[in-house]
Structures are given as structure tokens and as C-alpha cells.
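Entry:
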Amino acid sequence: MIRICNSLVNSGFNVKIIGVEFGNSSDLQLKKYTQKRIRLFFKKGFGFYLEYNVKLFFYLLFQKTDAFCCIDLDTMLPVYFAAFILKKIKVYDAHEYFSQQKEIITRPGIYKIWHFVERTFVPKFLNGYTVSEGIAKEFHKNYKVNYEVIRNVPVLKPLETINQKEKIILYQGSVNEGRGFEFLIPAMKSVNAKLFVYGDGNFSDAARSLVTKHHLGDKILFAGKFLPDELNTMTPNAYIGINLVEQIGLNQFLSLANKFFNYIHYAVPQLTMNFPEYKKINEEFEVALLINSLSPIAIENSLNLLLNDDQLYRRLQQNCIKAREVYHWQREEKKLISFYENINSTIKR
């Protein structure tokens, strides 16, 4: 969201981003755009979503704006009704195929609610964009909307000289269900390297318990949450990046994780899934080893191959350097600005 907001502000748009204030939220950093956090009594579950949606709706009603943009499905209802009442344009920024996430699709009652919201309201959001061609095609097939594809890729910056690295394996991002930790952690028993986990999430406690169970406390280190700028200083030091997801629901199967491109931009070969969007890019630029399914033995064999085959590693690393010249924010930004300029032109007519 930081990249999107900065790009819009730099192009002359006035932007306000609204989020939630949690007890452990870091202080807001000074930005070019306006930031607002809504305080909530409930911290999770149905109470959280109900309170947030109600408070967000009433907050939006008193905003002077030309357009509202909801980020993912969990803010769609207040945005829709506020835009309807105020007769404003509404935009859907679909970072996820929300109803197809593992934590939703595996819980039938929760799935029914979010799927109802999705199939009822996404067709009413004619303006939108998402992170992969696969998700855009699914939205068109199921909801008859034509969404732009704007990938969430890093800003292209000069790459520092690549020196000999300590063989550290890095996972960055949310430590959530469906990210393969149940398979990655036992696989590390037979991998001669340390794994650093930068992030937090709903599977953090379970992941730490698995580390204890497998007696891997000296090999797997949990560093907690870091700001993006802090992560950018750590990623170049990694030897291998980890980007694993379970094939449960279409979201993981069709999406492109931010970390996939972050590893590419720092010339860090990675282990990821043989899913359509990753496979497509890897056929263009071989930047990763792909595995067909999650299992400790598949992960162990792939990591050891990357650690021990210097020729393979150097080839993937050089391909990362080529790929970063194609998949970067300066290119995606042009599509974002064009999208909002088209909306702006309809407002002025």
C-alpha cells in the first residue's frame, strides 16, 4: 500500500489511507499522504469485523472525496454503502481472492458469509485491479468484471555488489496458516543451514511449537515483525528465499506473493511452488526451484540442491538480475496511474 499511495500522491492525487489501530501497532511514520487508524474494542472474530465495518462506514460518510477504494473484501461493505449514499465512484483493490483463502475455505460457515459478500458485491465494483492474471480471469468468469492486473512488485533500485554470502535461508512475510511451516520445519532437520523467519501471524505460536517438538531451536530463529525498510536491509544477506503455500483454495494457487518479487530484486534464488503464475515467470526467467507439492522430503531435497550445486545457484542468481529489470514498480506504476486517471476523467465529465 505504501508504493500505491506514494505513486498516486506523486501523480497529483490526494490520498487518505484508513486502517486499524491494534495494541501492538507501530507508530505511524510521516508520509506524503494522510493516514488514519480506527480504534476498536474487539481484536478478532465476528466482533472485530462488525465493529470495524460499522465504524468505517460512518467515518466514510463524512469524508470529502471523489472515489472510495476498498482493499480486499473485508472493507467492501462500508465502501459500497458509503459510495452509494454519497454517489461516489468505488474501486476494488483485490490483493487476494478473498473467499478462496485457506483460513476461509476450510471453515464452511465462514466461507458462506464471505462468498455471499463476494458474489453479491464484487459485480457492483466495475472498477478494480488485482495482483495476477489468474485472479483477474477468475473474477471475469465468476463476476463478469474486467480488472486490471497491477503486480505488487518492488521499486527498481541499483543492486549492490553481490558478495559471497553465508548460507542463510530466509522466510519473510506473514506466518499464517497455509504457508507450509508444517512441512518446512521438519525438513530443516536435514538441511545444513539456518532458517530466519521475519514476520508474525496466526500460525506463529504453532510454528514455534513445531520448532520445539523437532528440537530445532538452534537452527530456526523467529525474529518477529519488521518494517519494509528494515526487511530490505536483511533480504540481501539471505542465500535462499522461501515462498511456500498449500494448494487449498484458488487464492494461493493463482496469486503472486510479494516475497516472490522481493527475493528476485535482491538476487536471492528461492524455493517456491509449481503454481501457474510462478511457473509462467520461471519459464521466462529461471529464478527459482519449483516443487509440485508440500512435503518435508521435497523441501529438504530442493534446499540441499540449492545449497550444494554452485552452478545451479549462480544461474538462478543471474536470472534474478535479468528478471528484476522487467518486473518492477516503475512499470506497474504506469498502469496504476492510467487506471486512476481514467476514473478521474469520468468524474470531470
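The chain has two domains: 2-153+328-348, 168-323.
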